[in-house]
Amino acid sequence: MELRQLSYFVAVAEELHFGRAAAKVRIAQPALSNHVQALERELGCALFIRSTRRVELTRAGEIFHERCVGILSEVDLSAEITRAVAGKTIRQIRIGTVYPATTGVLPAFLAKIARKYPDIRIHISSGNTGDIIRGLENGQINLGFIRPVENSCDDTYSLVSLVSAGLGIGFAPEWTEGLPNRAFELKTVRGIDFRIGLGVAWNKEDPTASRDDIVDIARSLGRPVR
């Protein structure tokens, strides 16, 4: 079993399409299929359910995917730690963001990073605070922009669903007025400061994100709440 085989499997598991996965990892589709089949033979079980219309992960495939992501992330982290010890320059940074909360922060952060590290590769993914924290823990993300953990709901669509079901009230942004088939009433509220705190999170064991200058750049974009 080789690391490249694991990365090929992860690509198929994420795309659920052999053609797109092959393009993603830049190999021919037949070669990709052969690698996946070799993995299945070695493991002695099917990782995918294949049909003419779709590709799905088996339960074994789901577990194997989760483990492979962790293994590949650990390998990347180990490489970064080694480079950091040797004093090498950061090569890539993976950022997790809470959208749309970071729309006013992320562009400025990326611009500053690009000026300081012009050769760095930047990968951005979005999710809720819980997703980002889990990504930091398993090494998939180097730096995360998150909302305070004490917020009860950082997903506007989830909030709208709960309110539509009659489970309380909530503060929602103006754009929710344009949602189709809206099953809730919107009222303008005044006299309340609706600013939501945005935090920066990183894993102390990750040398990519714990470099003081990277974190300081992120922190410099924050505004103190009065």
TrEMBL record:
Listed A to Z, the keywords are:
DNA-binding, Transcription, Transcription regulation
> Which parts of the chain are coiled coil?
none
Cited SUPFAM superfamilies: Periplasmic binding protein-like II, Winged helix' DNA-binding domain
Residue stretches making up the HTH lysR-type domain: 1-58
Cite the Pfam families for this sequence. HTH_1, LysR_substrate
Which Gene3D superfamilies does the record associate with it?
A: Periplasmic binding protein-like II, Winged helix-like DNA-binding domain superfamily/Winged helix DNA-binding domain
| Family that this chain belongs to | Belongs to the LysR transcriptional regulatory family.
* Name this protein carries in UniProt: LysR family transcriptional regulator
Q: What species does this protein belong to?
A: Rhizobium ruizarguesonis
